[in-house]
Structures are given as structure tokens and as C-alpha cells.
């Protein structure tokens, strides 16, 4: 039975501080294609991995602006262009009456853009990932922290990467088959 191609090498850590230190050390060594897995958000891990700033604020702002413009535009079209009714001499474009619907659609669209933007940026749904081949990886959702150096990194060499991860004093080092 032949071995599957290697996706990378993974190290297991017992504490989040050790994971952050390991990610920073790997980044300082020159590794760029790596990922970390933890059961909860870890402060400073994104910076240690060298991740770019999140695009979520821009996506949510876009959703809010689209909702506000859509809500106000729909009311303007209905009250001014399509079915104008002069009630008590008020102007047809009475913006104070449009505020509640505009506000609600702003919040609704921003929330929907946030949910679907998060799903898309996280690459979900993902029913399978090569790290699931490591038996101890099931602990990543409970109590352990993992750093995976991926084989697509130009600096990656199997033995050198294992040796480097061994210098970081992990609980274990595992090959991740693709």
C-alpha cells in the first residue's frame, strides 16, 4: 500500500501561548504557507501567522449601504414616482417617514452580508480537509492547539520541517497526508 502525497507536517501544543510562539518562530524562519487550529480564538495568532486584515468590515459596510439605498429607493419610488398621494399638503418625498424602513433594511442587509461573507471567506462548507487524516486532530475542537506547515511552501522540506517543529517542543509531530 503506497503512502498518500504529503499535505504538510503538523505539531500539537498544549497551550495557546506555545502555539503563538511556534507560529511566530515559523514565520521568522521564513515559512509562509502554514495554518493554525485552536478550540477558541487566540489573541495574537493572526499576527503571528502573518494573516492580512479581515475584509469583513468592508463587506458589512457594503451590505449596510446597499440596504439603506434599497430601502430608501423603494419607498421613494412607491411614494413619489409610482403612486403619489398628497396628504395634508406634505411633500411627497417626506424623508422622516422613510427612516424606520431604511434603518431596518440597513441592519438586515448588513447582517445578511456578514453571515454570507463569513461563510464564503472561511471557505465553508468544507466537508473534508487533509488535516482530518491526523487522528489526534479531533482534539483541536476541545483542548489542543495545532500548527501545520504546508508542503506547498517553497521552504518546506519534510525532514527539515519536522526537525524545526521538534525544536519548538510540541506534544507531538504528525505527517498530514493529502
Q: Number of helical runs?
A: 5
Helix content: 40-55%
The strand count comes to 4
Helix and strand composition category = alpha+beta
- Structural Rg: 25 Å
General form = rod-shaped
CATH C-level class of the largest domain? Alpha Beta
Proportion of residues in extended strands = 5-15%
The major sheet is characterized as: 4 strands, antiparallel
Order of helices and strands: EHEHHHEHE
Low-confidence stretches: none
User: What topology, given as strand order, has the largest sheet?
Assistant: 2-3-1-4
Question: What is the total domain count?
Answer: 2
Query: End-to-end span in angstroms?
Result: 15 Å
Q: Roughly what is the average pLDDT, rounded to an integer?
A: 94
CATH topology value of the largest domain: Alpha-Beta Plaits
What is the level-2 CATH architecture name of the largest domain?
2-Layer Sandwich
Looking at how many chains there are and whether they match, the oligomeric state comes to: single chain
Task: Please describe what this structure looks like.
47% of the residues lie in helices and 13% in strands. The chain is of the alpha+beta class. The protein has two domains: 90 residues, Alpha-Beta Plaits (2-Layer Sandwich), CATH 3.30.70; 66 residues, no CATH class. The chain has a four-stranded antiparallel sheet with strand order 2-3-1-4, with helices on one face. The protein is rod-shaped. 22% of the residues are buried. The mean pLDDT is 94.
Amino acid at each position: 500500500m503506497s503512502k498518500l502525497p504529503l499535505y504538510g507536517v503538523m505539531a500539537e501544543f498544549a497551550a495557546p501561548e506555545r502555539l503563538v510562539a511556534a507560529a511566530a518562530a515559523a514565520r521568522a524562519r521564513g515559512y509562509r504557507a502554514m495554518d493554525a487550529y485552536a478550540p477558541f480564538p487566540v489573541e495574537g495568532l493572526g499576527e503571528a501567522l502573518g494573516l492580512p486584515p479581515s475584509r469583513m468590515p468592508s463587506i458589512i459596510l457594503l451590505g449596510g449601504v446597499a440596504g439603506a439605498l434599497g430601502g430608501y429607493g423603494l419607498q421613494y419610488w412607491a411614494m413619489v414616482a409610482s403612486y403619489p398621494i398628497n396628504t395634508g399638503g406634505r411633500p411627497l418625498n417626506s424623508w422622516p417617514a422613510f427612516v424606520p424602513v431604511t434603518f431596518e433594511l440597513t441592519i438586515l442587509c448588513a447582517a445578511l452580508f456578514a453571515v454570507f461573507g463569513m461563510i464564503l471567506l472561511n471557505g465553508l462548507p468544507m466537508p473534508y480537509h487533509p488535516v482530518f487524516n491526523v487522528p489526534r486532530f479531533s482534539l483541536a475542537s476541545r483542548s489542543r492547539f495545532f500548527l501545520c506547515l504546508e508542503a506547498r511552501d517553497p521552504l518546506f522540506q519534510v525532514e527539515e520541517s519536522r526537525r524545526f517543529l521538534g525544536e519548538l517542543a510540541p506534544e507531538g509531530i504528525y505527517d498530514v497526508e493529502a
